């Protein structure tokens, strides 16, 4: 999560997951989930960025992202 009012600043939150730990089958859509505790310092202007970083040599796709707020 970034603060757009300070684009060069350190992210307010960064979290990552290892897809290989959740994806066990190839050539098939697999549901992957993650939970992150959002810091109280975010504002309505904060921006959530989601990236798929594939450091391997196999193709990976990302589709149908759902973000939910839990109390």
Brief overview, please?
The protein has 71 residues and is largely without helices or strands. It is 0% helix and 0% strand. The two termini are 18 Å apart.
Give the topology.
Blueprint (H helix, E strand, L loop, with lengths): L71
Q: How many strand units?
A: 0
Span of the ends, CA to CA:
18 Å
Give the count of helical stretches: 0
Our Rg estimate from Cα atoms comes to 15 Å
Main sheet makeup: none
Overall SS class: little secondary structure
**Cα shape:** elongated
Low-confidence stretches: none
Percent in strands: under 5%
Query: How would you state the average pLDDT, rounded?
Result: 86
> Fraction of residues in helices?
under 10%
Verbal overview:
This protein is mostly loops and about 70 residues long. It has no helices and no strands. The model has no long low-confidence stretch (mean pLDDT about 85).
Keywords:
71 residues
């Amino acid at each position: 999560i970034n603060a757009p009012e300070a684009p060069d600043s350190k992210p307010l939150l960064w979290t990552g997951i290892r897809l290989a730990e959740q994806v066990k089958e190839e050539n098939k859509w697999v549901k992957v989930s993650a939970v992150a505790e959002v810091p109280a310092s975010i504002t309505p202007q904060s921006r959530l960025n989601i990236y798929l970083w594939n450091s391997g040599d196999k193709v990976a796709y990302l589709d149908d992202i759902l973000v939910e707020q839990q109390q």
